[in-house]
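As described in the Methods, two query proteins were run sequentially through the folding procedure within a single session, without resetting any intermediate state between them. The first query and its resulting structure tokens are shown here.
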Amino acid sequence: MMQSTFPPYLSLAIWLPIVFGVLLLAIGRESNKGLVRWLALVGAIVSLLPTIPLIQHFDNAAHGMQFVELTPWIGRFNIMYALGVDGLSLWFVPLTAFITIIVVISAWEVIQERVSQYMAAFLILSGLMIGVFTATDGLLFYFFFEATLIPMYIIIGIWGGENRVYASFKFFLYTFFGSLLTLVAIIYLYNAAGGSFDILKWHQLPLSMGEQTLIFFAFLAAFAVKVPMFPVHTWLPDVHVEAPTGGSAVLAAIMLKLGAYGFLRFSLPITPDASKEYAGLIIVLSLIAVVYIGLVALVQKDMKKLVAYSSIAHMGFVTLGFFMFNDMSVQGGIVQMISHGFVSGAMFLCIGVLYDRMHSRQIADYGGVINTMPRFAAFMVLFSMANAGLPATSGFVGEFMVILGSVQFNFVTGILAATALILGAAYSLWMVKRVIFGAVGNAHVAELTDLNGREFFMLGVLALATLYMGLYPAPFTDTMQTSVADLLQHVAAGKLPQ
């Protein structure tokens, strides 16, 4: 892995938001709320800047990692500060920085207590999540992967709802205990590789089927909880309901992707034979998530819970795509991850806009919002349609690619996967009908005020991203083709004697 000739864009993307976050903590005075908000926004925008050259200078035809940074970290144990991106991880770096800007804007007037700590938590979280997507050293990956729990735990526990302490503990315990087996697997791979934490070297290790099976399930314990897959998904609706709007947006848009990305970077390339052996299990669990959780979403009375369950169903599409091992389905899974970042984040922000005005997330408390908030209603309908997978929105592209890949894999699997479009339309349209359309539901709805300039900008940018990706997905798919083809070739070859 050759050192990059480019400036350290990846390090800047990781550490700039963390430095700004620490600076905000140092200011930490409630009397300086205005300064804190503007400094947080500047920090978020500055942190996005080094991610733009990654897209501009990324070579779609190149194999392996790009923008590589290699520096000895803990020399005695051969632990490296090693960073790099390929087509599997590229888009998640700017996506994380972009969503962080939106979250800072969303909290501008809403958060009035501990403003500096709130903004700092999100900036630090942004840097840590980018670290997960860019780390090519196993221990560095694990450090970033686990460190993301701390800011999110604080965000939920301090700024969350009534049951925030319960939700934050549930979030931490589920995700932390799931990751402990991964640490064991990482240490095992370190020894098997002759004392190296280089993830790319782990990809080439000649592991037996027994070793691969144990390592596969060790990784599954962490990544399945993080996605989350059925049946370890129960923490997500509780956390979404209690988390502040920004926390829900980041959790859905970025944090769930850390687990799915782990399958691409660890499970498939390190344990290819075990991945093929147990693909049927993952496919069945993914289809249960797509169909059953979609049905669960249909009966929800709380808007946040409905969107939370729809997130589980959409992430089921991602894991389904990865384990059918064809170009179309794997690319579709990655596209779905990026699209879900835009759409689910936007859905939670829309619910947050309503909650800020009415302090209720119950669908029954609304009705006829379009009469008092027409601009908001337009955005809510657009994002709901994207959530349902309407053509010309980003939500359609990934789901359609996964369904095509499913049909190539097995026709029955394709039919079951396609039911997600029907269920997605059902629960999205049901919510829109009850909340947005019809006569004004009550006096509280009659008093609602439409979007202000800040909210319009925030939702407008996400709407443009959703439509751009839906109408012209080529920039996203072109960057991942080579890396996906290399991954599938590696999985097909396996490590066991043929």
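Immediately afterward, the second query was submitted; its sequence and tokens are:
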Amino acid sequence: MSINNLDSRNTASANLDSLSTDEKYMLRCIQIAKNGLGTTAPNPMVGAVIVYKDHIIGEGFTSAFGGSHAEVNAINSVNDVSLLKFATLYVTLEPCSHFGKTPPCADLIVKMGIPKVVIGLKDPHEKVAGNGIKRLEQSGCHVQVGILKHECEEHHKRFLTFYTKKRPYIILKWAETADGFIAPEPTLRGEKKNPYWITNNRSRQLVHKWRSEEPSILVGTNTVLADNPQLNLRDWYGKPPTRIILDRDLLISTDFHIYNGKQKTIICTEITDPSKYANEVTYKVLNFKSSLPQQLSTLLYDELIQSVIIEGGAQTLQSFIDCNLWDEARIFKGTNTFYKGIKAPEITGDIQKQIQIATDQLTILKP
């Protein structure tokens, strides 16, 4: 199976014949919206489709942050704008009704005279929250809400979690051996600090694809000290995530990769003395004697970071599991064995899917 085929798929796509016409067009909105994954935040990655007499005459998805929204791009793609007065606009999320980086999409829809708008979800953002729908209805537009609601919720899971739970969408990720270890004992490693690979090249490429899709990645002190990871993108194209590093006592020296200045890095520490800080990174002081998962969730929320991949180590991962503060776990199981070392985290959840990637098995869980 190719890397692209490993993206989550909506259950509705399994049987198109069972879908209504509105659902098929909404499914298309979700499909094209994925083109904005990893580039639109803090804006949601919305998809929009414009239909005239059962033919798609325009499509669009949210541009990279600061650019046009999906509805604008869809309208601008229509060759004959006179048809808009007889068309239906499908969109995964309620059109915005406020001025931000761009003007309100609801005003443009009204201006272009589109008579019907079909919406997947109401926008939970306090600046929208039904006002876009109200604006459309007041203009005489017929509005329908809730088409493929479950699929749109899954698609917008990062955005929805951020604005309804006031925290980022939290993805746990690790690789474990066939006998359940996440890392070997130190004697199995060489003198040079490098990651000790459990998975194959295809799985590692997929992880880099995931990193391109999320705005941040988090690891603990021991992971950095043992592996000296770069936490960047090497096997996929995109914007590298912000590195979030736990380093309570600032044990990580500045010759480690996290200090290379090639991407934004935030170090969470208990040290308050600025003379101990390096210039290449940002420091945030946390109370390591209190619940770190909750503090980190608040920190990322304050930094407007809508999602995070937690890649290790075992203690950091387990702390989020024990606090029941996670939304998705992506667990690779390789074929090699360590016999002894650091045990993989213990987790229970509902299996969403299991995928074979060459010699590795990927299991995706949700709480």
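The chain is about 25% helix and 25% strand. We note this only descriptively and draw no conclusion about the first query from it.
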